[in-house]
Amino acid sequence: MTTQDKMATLRTTLDQLAASVKAEAPSVNRQAMAALAGQWILYDGKVDPVTTSSGGASHSYEETVVFDGQGSYRWSSASQVSVTTPGISAGAGSANGSTTDGDQGSYTVIGNTQGTKGQLAVDFQLGNGQLIAAGKRYVRQ
Q1: What pTM was estimated for this model as a whole?
Q2: Higher local confidence (pLDDT), 54 or 67
């Protein structure tokens, strides 16, 4: 950063700079936390009907998040896939699969979110019965 002969001057400058920095903990917006209270659902799904020549498929994905309005949340997700293919002479074959996931922990509106899967910060918009968070659109249930 500097030569040996200018270290004392640099130290003085750095001490002045450090003394001018003021840092405080973020203030929690309790009103916004209360506005989030309730159960929010995100759903995405599609069904392609089964036909005798091409079979069919369906898939669904659902996320549910429940905020208590005071700093605790629960999140879960579930997905399901089903594929049916018609057999030539013996009928139809099918495959089904599903997965689930979940998390719970504490949250603040301003600051950070801490769950069992680690810390996460998410920008969100709340209004008109919708919660848009991390690019996903949830509706209040």
Answers
A1: 0.63
A2: 67
